[in-house]
Amino acid sequence: MRLPMAVPAVVGYGALQLIAVLACAGTTLGDPGEPMIWPAFGIAAMWLLVSGESRRRWPVTGAIGLFTAGGLAVTGTPVGIALLEGLAAMLGAVAFVFAVARRQPGPRPPADGGRWLSRLTDLWDLLLCAGVASLAANVLRIAGDLLLGGERTFMITGVTALFLRDAVSVVVFGTAVRLLAGLGGDQRGRTWSRHGPEALAVFAVSAGAYWAVFSIQAELPIGFVLIPLTVWAALRLPSLVVVLHVAVFDCAALLWTVGGHGPYAVVADVELRAVLIQLYAGILACVGLALAISRDERDTLIQRLQVSEQEATDKATMMTTVVNSMTEGLAILDHTGRLVLRNPAAGRLLGSVPAVTGGAALGTDHGFFQPDGSPLSDDELPHVRVLAGQDVAPMDVLVRNSAVPEGRVVRFNAARLALGTGPYHVVVVFHDVTADRRHRDELMSFAGRVAHDLLNPLTTIEGWAEVLEQELAGYRPAERVQRIQRAAARMRTFLNGLLSYTAARDGKLMPTTINMALLVGDVINSRLDQAENAGEAPPYFEVGRLDPVEADPVLLRQLLENLIDNSLRMMAPGVAPYLAISCQPAPNGLLRIDILDNSLGIPPGLRHEVFTSFHREKGATNANGLELAICKRIVERHGGTIEATANPYGAGTRMSFTLPAGRSAYARALAPIR
């Protein structure tokens, strides 16, 4: 597909380059004998550029030199000078391509067919690359002239005129050819239908103005009055039309000047005259292209902004619809705690008027309480704690106000929302958990009552089993009685766990300052005594610093015993148990207590599941599945958190939980116990 499309392009560029050489070879000014209009240089540069990295690049380079030298020779230029100009054209084109490659992503045409000169920075890159190409060509001309014995004499003004001529050729004629080559037929049709009348008007007015300045008022230096015509074209017409306007009237000005007419023809010095007319052509091209590209860039940005605005509007409409249709409440608060946005579900759940936007502060004036009905201060609200920089777990809040007199338990999830500028906001998502909590509470209360009621017949079973064991002592059926006793013991363990969980959930907290070192030491001594009575190897405990905590003594002892017993149950056979217990400060006035062991450990996927009710660890014995659930409930009732992670110092598990730091000064941590 590429070759058939590339061959006409090569032929077209070659034909244009040869026509440009033949047509403009005679546009010389004065003694230097150099053409003042030289589009061949710009066409050659673009021809080589569009050849890309293909194998045709070197044949194209040779064709550039051949067409330039041959065309000049046909028009009567001496062979030596014609060959020198051919080499200069080749070197200029190669230098232009090299400069473009070094300036990526500068004026190189996009590979996906994007527009040429789509940004203002592309124009500056184009000017730089054109200057490099012109400089290389003129250096070769001067060096070649010296080798030819000074057949042509180059002065500073003459070299400057040639430098400007070649650079203008690339900027004006090369750009025009490139834009024409990249514009499809349908695009040309749309461009003409939209801008044709105004383009004709601009060209007609410009033709009259140039004729007046260069013919009627030829001796007055008023060429600057023609620049507004280029500004008009640049502000109103497409870039291609602007480039064609510049090319046409640059050529007109140059031809009038070569013919001895116009404001620049009055300059006596021919070389200075050439510099001035080329400088005028360059300024006209730069002004027109800079304005046209800036306008195109502005229009493109406006179009993108309009598209983005429409997309944002559509997304906002979609998000508003989604938010308003949610059954969960959603609220966004600013850094002062005032509502920025809330959905209708938020109003229904909190008992206020449904609205998409708010403005009032979300505080305890809404009737917020602890789930047990105790007061809740503003500082304890989840969104206030998040605004204070705390990490807040999901929190249940009792909502009771005039709109919700019966009360409703709502679970709040608050998270920080960092915006690009200004202070961050808070997103609060909440939903009604009243039915779930009621169902769970009723179920656990029922389980507690059943467990309590079953203890009486279980005690009877255990008593009669003991009597039966004594009567059958020495007989074989006594082994079956022992099975009854073991089953009864397992059942008692399970029922005691249910009762403990119910107490941990419903029992009234009586917090006091507890010396953790004394309590942990007492629990450790009891476990050492159990191991000794059972004839087992005693576990090794390493206790670090333990600061006092504010907690319920009964529940805290149960918490420590459950965690230590859980670690001992999870030991691998034949492994001597090792536990390390220590604490460290935690944010928000809490202490973090760590219990590390060398047990089998907990798989990563089960480290959250182990705290659910009736979960049994693989390999654990003598467990009812409620021990860690009880631990979680005790810690949460004290306002802390608990988690299970891998032991960072080896095999095993690290249980970490937080409790409020002790308030009384008398309870001081003891020295570490080992």
TrEMBL record:
Record-annotated Histidine kinase domain positions: 449-663
UniProt keyword terms in alphabetical order: ATP-binding, Kinase, Membrane, Nucleotide-binding, Phosphoprotein, Transferase, Transmembrane, Transmembrane helix, Two-component regulatory system
SMART domains (alphabetical): HATPase_c (SM00387), HisKA (SM00388)
Membrane topology: Multi-pass membrane protein
E.C. designation(s): 2.7.13.3
Domain annotation PAS: ranges: 315-351
UniProt enzyme class: transferase
SUPFAM superfamilies to which the protein is assigned, alphabetical: ATPase domain of HSP90 chaperone/DNA topoisomerase II/histidine kinase, Homodimeric domain of signal transducing histidine kinase, PYP-like sensor domain (PAS domain)
Gene Ontology cellular-component terms listed: plasma membrane
UniProt key word Kinase: yes
GO biological process: osmosensory signaling via phosphorelay pathway
Pfam families recorded: HATPase_c, HisKA
Transmembrane segments annotated in the record for this chain: 35-51, 58-75, 81-102, 155-180, 200-227, 239-258, 270-293
Catalytic activity: ATP + protein L-histidine = ADP + protein N-phospho-L-histidine
Subcellular locations according to the entry: Cell membrane; Membrane
UniProt name for this protein: Sensor-like histidine kinase SenX3
Molecular function as annotated in GO: ATP binding; phosphorelay response regulator activity; phosphorelay sensor kinase activity; protein kinase activator activity
